[in-house]
Amino acid sequence: MKKVLVPVDGSPNSLKALRHVVDGARKDDSLEIHVVHVRAPFSRYIARFLSKRSRAAYHRDEAGKALKPARELLETALIPHATHVELGDAAQAIDRVARRLHVDRIVMGTARKNSFTRMIEDSVTNRVVELAQVPVEVIAGQSVSRLERIGIPAGIGMALVLLFAAID
Predict the structure, then answer these.
(1) Which of 14, 52, 61, 135 is positioned for an S-S bond with 109, CB 3.0–4.6 A?
(2) Burial, 98: exposed, middle or buried (Cβ in 10 Å; 0-12, 13-18, 19+)?
(3) Which domains are delineated in the chain?
(4) What is the sign of the dihedral through the CA atoms of 155, 161, 164 and 166?
(5) Closest Cα partner for 111 from 19, 6, 16?
(6) Is the whole-model pTM more than 0.90?
């Protein structure tokens, strides 16, 4: 049986990756599908005002919301699956789950971005590709918004202008 790990954050791009895996599972019933959602922990400054029980309940509720579309897709397709919720850095948590479950591959969805943005951006997808000991299949999703396409390079350009102004 081949194990596949699909990170899901509730975005259309992560669901597109899951649909890709579901299509594969319809052709190959030996796939074992694991879906993981990673939550960022509260900073210690915020966490000190909340009980451990309150923090756990919040993360459980938010993970449920993010996993709901994925569960519905898999249940509608009548495909057995397991869901996992992790706390921590997304890329490290995905790699940790992949190692713990001994998956054969990771399938991730990602937004379409230009190569310049990909080069300078510290994306979860890029870090998973670097960390993972198994193949990572990246499914291209929707393009980023027009604002993101223009805003990120403009922001970098402005940062460089300020840097050079500070040097002079």
Answers:
(1) 14
(2) buried
(3) 2-167 (3.40.50.620)
(4) negative
(5) 16
(6) no
d(CA 98, CA 105): 8
User: What region does 100 belong to: left with phi over 0, alpha with psi -120 to 50, or beta?
Assistant: alpha
Q: What is the pLDDT along the chain (168 residues), one digit of tens a residue?
A: 799 999 999 888 999 999 999 998 888 888 899 999 999 988 888 888 888 898 889 999 999 999 999 999 999 999 999 999 999 999 999 999 999 999 999 999 987 654 545 555 668 888 999 999 999 999 987 655 555 454 455 555 666 667 667 775
Question: Which tokens hold the place of 16?
Answer: 């597109």
How long, in residues, is the chain?
Answer: 168
